[in-house]
Design a protein that fits this description.
Layout (H helix, E strand, L loop, with lengths): L2 H18 L3 H17 L6 H5 L15 E6 L2 E6 L4 E5 L4
Helix pairs in contact: 1-2
Length: 93
C-alpha cells in the first residue's frame, strides 16, 4: 500500500468518525481532501468511501442521519440529504 493510499484511508476513517459525532462540515472537508488526493495521484477511492460519500455535496453518508437507504428489487438506493441518489446492485442477479 502506497503512502497516498494510506493517507486516503486515514482521511476516510476521520470522515466517518466526524460524521458519527455530528461534525458534518469537518467530515465533508475530509471527504473533499481524500477525493482531491486520489484525483491528483490517479488512484481510486476505497469502495467504502465511494459508497458512503455523496458525489454532489461531498457529505459523508451515515444511514439514518445524513442518508436514507432503501432496498428495491435487485438494488439499494441511497439518498443524501441534498437529494442526490446512488444505486448499488446486490444479489446474484
Amino acid at each position: 500500500m502506497s503512502v497516498v493510499e494510506e493517507r486516503i484511508e486515514r482521511l476516510a476513517d476521520l470522515a466517518r468518525e466526524a460524521a458519527r459525532s455530528g461534525e458534518s462540515d469537518l467530515a465533508r472537508r475530509y471527504v473533499q481532501r481524500a477525493r482531491r488526493l486520489a484525483e491528483r495521484n490517479r488512484t481510486d477511492l476505497p469502495r467504502r468511501l465511494k459508497r458512503f460519500s455523496c458525489d454532489r455535496c461531498d457529505a459523508y453518508l451515515v444511514p439514518g442521519r445524513t442518508a436514507r437507504v432503501r432496498t428495491r428489487s435487485g438494488h439499494v438506493v441511497v439518498t443524501c440529504d441534498c437529494g442526490e441518489h446512488a444505486r448499488y446492485p446486490y444479489g446474484s442477479g
